[in-house]
Write a structure and sequence with these properties.
Distance between the termini: 19 Å
Shape: elongated
Structural class: alpha/beta
Number of strands: 9
Strand order of the largest sheet: 1-2-3-4-5-6-7-8-9
Order of helices and strands: HHEHEEEEEEEHE
Helix content: 10-25%
Low-confidence stretches: 1-38
Largest sheet: 9 strands, parallel
Oligomer: single chain
Radius of gyration: 17 Å
Length: 208
């Protein structure tokens, strides 16, 4: 339930990023930057702090058209803008990634070993997910009709959002930790909510 509330808060706050409690008290550290289009932040500014940057939200800044190639400590990244066309290939510590409404980035890095939250709602460019997302806990594919399949092994997935998604035809055979599934306005009849309720008695299913 804690993850569900966190997920709803994340979506309901217009994707404004909330710092984890363990970082909120750190004064003077650049764990989280929110760049606005009217600001004077440049790529050089971002590059200067890239090696120790942990959380980055680029909501309205269209001046930065690329991310630094090396972001070894980045744990959270949200890109709503349509100026950056690709992600760095190596994001070893990334735990939360939001590309909702982003229609510039066409692919994800092949290896995201620590990713726990992936938001791709309203994204019309990315067509596939990395094969290994075994640590993933939250996946949002609402209003996404380009990704046609899920990785076969999602043992830690707790929240899956498929509202208004017409491309996902089936779910992985075993989702042992799934707590919440959104199927609202999903026209794909291959996902049978009644069968899922029998298989996972504690699963909450939202169909609006």
């Amino acid at each position: 339930m804690e993850q569900i509330n966190k997920f709803r808060s994340f979506l309901g706050s217009d994707l404004a990023y909330i710092l984890p409690p363990e970082l909120a008290g750190e004064i003077g550290q650049r764990y989280f930057w929110e760049f606005k289009s009217e600001g004077g932040v440049t790529y050089d500014d971002l590059f200067e702090i890239s090696t120790y940057l942990s959380f980055l939200y680029l909501g309205e800044n269209k001046k930065i058209v690329a991310l630094p190639p090396d972001l070894p400590n980045l744990r959270g990244l949200s890109l709503l803008i349509e100026a950056i066309e690709s992600l760095p290939p190596n994001l070893p510590n990334l735990q939360e990634l939001s590309l909702g409404y982003n229609n510039m980035i066409e692919s994800l890095p092949p290896d995201l070993p620590n990713l726990k939250t992936l938001i791709l709602g309203y994204n019309d460019k990315i067509v596939s997910l990395p094969p290994d997302l075994t640590n993933l806990q939250i996946l949002d594919l609402g209003y996404n009709n380009t990704i046609e399949s899920l990785p076969p092994d999602l043992p830690n997935l707790q929240i899956l959002r498929l509202g208004s998604n017409e491309s996902i035809a089936s779910l992985p055979p075993d989702l042992p930790n799934l707590q919440f599934l959104e199927l609202g306005w999903n026209k794909n009849n291959n996902i049978d909510s009644n069968t899922l309720r029998i298989k996972y008695p504690n699963l909450q299913i939202s169909q609006y």
